[in-house]
Structures are given as C-alpha cells and as structure tokens.
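User: Predict the structure for this protein chain, please.
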Amino acid sequence: MNNAKQLLAKWHTDASTGFLYRYIISSTERLVCHYHDYYEVFLIADGKVYHNVNGEKILLEKGDLLFIRPDDTHVLSYYREESFSIANLAFTSEICDSLFAYLDGGCNVGLLKSSPLPPCVRLPLKETERLIYTLQSINTASYTDSAEKILKMKSVLFDVFSKYFSKYTVSESGFSAWFEYLCEELKKPSVFRESKPDMCAICGKSKEHISRVFKRNLGITPSEYLCEIRLNYAANLLKNTNLSILEVSLEAGFDNLSWFYRRFNERFGVAPRGFRRVKE
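Assistant: Here is the predicted structure, written as structure tokens:
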C-alpha cells in the first residue's frame, strides 16, 4: 500500500512495560494505512469491518482474532458505514521473541511469522466474550506497579497464543484453512443447488478477497468453480440414475434448462442426452 505510515513502539507501547492495551471504538479513530516496528493482536469485539492488509481486502466480524507482524501493512475501512469496536494489544519485538522462545515446539512459530497474510482465527461467541474480558483484565493491574502489569500482560499473551494460535496451520495443499473449508462447503448439494450461495457468509471473507484467492490458487473464478461442481454432479446423475434431463438439471442447481444444455455441452463436448447414451 502506498503512503503507509510506520508506527513506532516508543510511541505506541508503554516504555515501562513494552505493551499497550486499547479498546477501540470506530467513531473515535482516524483510520490510517500503516505498519509497525512492533507486534499486536486484535480481536473484533463488535460489528464488521474491512481489513485491507498486504494487498488483500478481507471482511472481518465479531470473533475474528488476528496476529499482526511488523511488516504487515494494513488499514481498516468501514463495512456499509457500520460502527465497530476492537480489543487491541500492542507489544514490542522483544516481548514477542521471548514469548515465542517459550512457546517454540508448542506452536508453529515460523508459520505465524511468515504467512503472507496475518494469522486469523474465528472464535465462537462464548470464547469471544471470554477473551474480551481477559484482555480488559489487563487494566485491573496496579497502574504504578510495572512488574504486576508485565506479569498480567504475559499471562494474557500466553493464553492467546497457546489456546488460539497454537494449532494455526496452512494445509498441505498450500491453501489456507478458510479457503479449503469454502471449497468443501460448495460441494454440498444443499449449497450448490442454491442460485447464488452466500460464499461470504460461509467463510467470513469479502467477495473481492474470495475472487482473488480463487484466481490465485485455482486460476478460475468462484462462479466457474461452482459451475464445475454442478456439471460433474449432473454427469454422475446422468450416468447413475434414471432421472429425466430436467430433473438432473434441477438437482445439479441449474434452474434454466437451456443454460444447463449449453454449459454441459461446453464442458463434455456432448449434450446431456448424448452423454447418457455414450455412458450406456
């Protein structure tokens, strides 16, 4: 992102402790594209918000927990002008190095630091509320006792990384977990039979981000991927059932018979009726 501003730990963390906890309400914030020389974790505590990060635009919502690294260039932007709030904990590189040295072997530190996009996990509602309470408990430490504040902060960070990020992985295919989940969900008849499955609701990402990831990973659009699923399903129905062509079309999610004929012929080089005869 052009014109990104670097935020420095000496201004955005407490000098005596090396960290700073903030509960951010959107109406009070000036949203500026930036990167840091420190780390942070932030939790969407309420609402939805776009996260423009490392060239991608991702829709975040309540329960999304992210780990931001120094080289991540990002800025938040409003989703449909809706308000949002964030629980944010910033901490120095020294604290992060110490934490990861302790956690090494218990979580994939290399992946957490090097993944192209900031590691993100979605928490259930109950866990979201628990973590908000846990983060806010940092402020219960004595204001004048740095040692107590540091101990509280370290216990919170250990809780966050050991409980939520220790199992963070990228699949063997190299695809992110959310993308694989979306692809598998789209293969369910109850989903691909819908005229326009709500992919954003399934995976929690924006339409633009989903499109970019499909193009980058598979070289096709989400619509093309969905059509391929429907056509393969229809081909198997033609081969293995005695359903009529119209019934096959509807079962596969095509509500327009002529459109089904056209796409099927493009994919298999033969009309559905001819395909059935060949298979017989």
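The chain has a mean pLDDT of 90.
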